[in-house]
Amino acid sequence: MFRRLMAGAALAVAFAAPVRAAEIDPILPAETESVMFVNVRQIIDSEVVKKFALGQIKQALQGNDAQKMLKDLGLDPLKDVDRATVGQWGSAEEMNYVVVINGKFNPEKLNSAAAEHAKAKSDELSVLEEGKYKIFKFTPKNAQSDKPVFAAVASEKTIVAGSDKKLVVAALTAAEKGTKSALKKDLAALVLKQDEKASMFACALIEGKADNLQLPPNLNIPGVDGAKLSKQLAKITSAAMTLRVTDEVGLEVAMGMKDTDSADEFGDTVSNLIGTVKQFLPFLTAQQPQAKPVVDELTKTLKSKVKDKEVMLTLKISADAIGKATGGGD
Question: Would you give the DSSP letter of residue 139?
Fold first, then answer.
């Protein structure tokens, strides 16, 4: 009897667990200050995307140039890419990053096709030899930034890219050696709190980054004191966002504060901001009547709460509301 009760309790705990802790990609460098994870396979397989976005995605990939390049590379993003992880650090003017793409790849075919493309369009793509590694330097045309992107095939399961050649070499070395994660302890702990089954999550340590933030003195938001808001923002130590796309779209934002008092104060401000947003949402439907189903659900589901030292914001939009707003409903 006791054993059955214990077994039942264990099962209850297992099924009640709301999230599964995310893994830390060991390729991300120690300099990383923020991490973004995209569960590409889960998003593509979700009911919302299948109903309302998959057709447009396929159409975009079937453009003449895109289709030819993907065919040459032997790559089908809708089938071959499973997930992507991005580590970023630095300022807005000088942002550094490493991208790790996981899936099923053909290294020989990818390298060969990229080399052929480099011969035909050397102004866009060039091949760099770094010891035993072959790295491709891509300089995008007509992009907002003319900074090149460096990429390489690490294995049949991994492609790495980065803002600098040295970062890609370091990532290839880490992937080959199977090194342990080098992320800062606090950032690693924040990543481990995220849900690996989510469609997407992003998290960052931001303590001290808003210390000198000054909001406009003429900031005019009902129920919000601009001077107080500036001080409250300076007390945010971390931020995390989780997006879940299934048969509905759900968004969760969690902001870690220095202490419970600052969490309570900022929580009141966020609550007032949500109240103001909800007051103005009806004006949006007056301008765009087709958005009413989504606006109605936002009005009902957009909420905030304070738990310990965190201020959390959540919302949900059903597939039915999205369908009606986009003209894709029954």
Answer: -
Does the residue 8 lie in any domain? no
Whole-angstrom Cα distance, residue 232 to residue 311?
11
d(CA 199, CA 78): 15
Cβ atoms of 271 and 303 closer than 8 Å: no
Instruction: Give me the amino acid identity at 67.
Output: Q
Sheet holding 95-103, edge to edge: 125-130, 133-138, 149-153, 158-162, 95-103, 81-90, 34-38, 200-205, 236-245, 248-257, 310-318, 303-307
Q: Which positions ≥6 away from 315 have C-beta within 8 Å?
A: 250, 251, 298, 301, 302, 303
Helix (H, G, I), strand (E, B) or coil at 192: helix
Q: What is the pLDDT of residues 149-205, one digit of tens each?
A: 999 999 999 999 999 999 999 999 999 988 888 899 999 999 999 998 999 999 999
Vertex 208 angle, CA 95 and 312, to 5° = 95
Q: Where are the alpha helices (DSSP H) in 158-225?
A: 165-177, 185-192
Are 138 and 242 in the same domain?
no
**pLDDT bracket for residue 286 (50, 70, 90):** confident
Residue 195 forms part of a structural domain: no
**Residue 303 CB contacts under 8 Å (≥ 6 apart), including other chains:** 274, 313, 314, 315
Whether 129 is covered by a domain: the verdict is yes
pLDDT band at 8 (very low <50, low <70, confident <90, very high): very low
**Both structure tokens of 137:** 């330097």
Q: Are residues 36 and 162 in the same domain?
A: yes
